[in-house]
Specification:
By secondary structure, this protein is mostly helical. It has 10 helices and no strands. The longest helix is centred in the last third of the chain and has 22 residues. The chain is elongated, with a radius of gyration of 19 Å. The chain starts with a helix and ends with a helix.
């Protein structure tokens, strides 16, 4: 019988536990993240975290899943832009001041994933494959030749990430927003 009352308390409240973990990770980042201090901060045992998430890498990936969902919901009623022309509006909705901490964390996890790809395989699949697939579909729907769409999608995703990182590093909203709008105009001409 499990004598850990905290584990029993969270047995049917995993979504609440995950929300608490998300808040903690947003506030503290993942560099130096240790399961025991995290568990103490959210009011559960180390074993409870392991029971629910398996490993630190799985936990971080689930945190990112939640944050990506929040970004999608915040960016509009549909989770992603429906046309290439919608990208500029999507950019403005998804990079607001209150969403920048999410991007900061995403880039931090991205750096860890690049260093340890086997441990962050699911995260990398999501941020690379899923983003590219979404953009390819968007481009094809807008008339891009299917054989050219993967290359153009790679350019669009890379540019968006680069400008997100630029915005985080400089805080120069006006310049970065204008650069993104110009980029979308250039891609539309291609």
């Amino acid at each position: 019988m499990d004598t850990d009352g905290r584990r029993l308390r969270y047995q049917h409240r995993r979504p609440e536990l995950l929300d608490a973990v998300v808040d903690y990770v947003l506030a503290h980042g993942v560099s130096g993240l240790a399961m025991r201090p995290l568990a103490a901060a959210v009011g559960v045992s180390h074993g409870t975290l392991l029971h629910h998430f398996g490993s630190k890498e799985n936990l971080v990936t689930e945190v990112i899943d939640v944050l990506r969902q929040r970004l999608s919901e915040a960016a509009g009623s549909t989770s992603e832009p429906a046309r290439l022309a919608d990208l500029t509006d999507w950019w403005r909705r998804s990079t607001t001041e209150e969403r920048l901490p999410v991007y900061r964390l995403l880039f931090e996890v991205f750096a860890h994933a690049v260093r340890e790809p086997a441990q962050y395989e699911r995260f990398l699949r999501q941020v690379v494959h899923d983003s590219l697939a979404l953009m390819e579909n968007l481009l094809i729907a807008d008339g891009c030749a299917p054989e050219r769409a993967p290359l153009v999608a790679s350019i669009v995703v890379a540019q968006a990430r680069g400008l997100q990182l630029d915005l985080l590093a400089t805080g120069d909203r006006e310049r970065v927003d204008a650069a993104f709008a110009l980029f979308v105009d250039l891609i539309d001409r291609i």
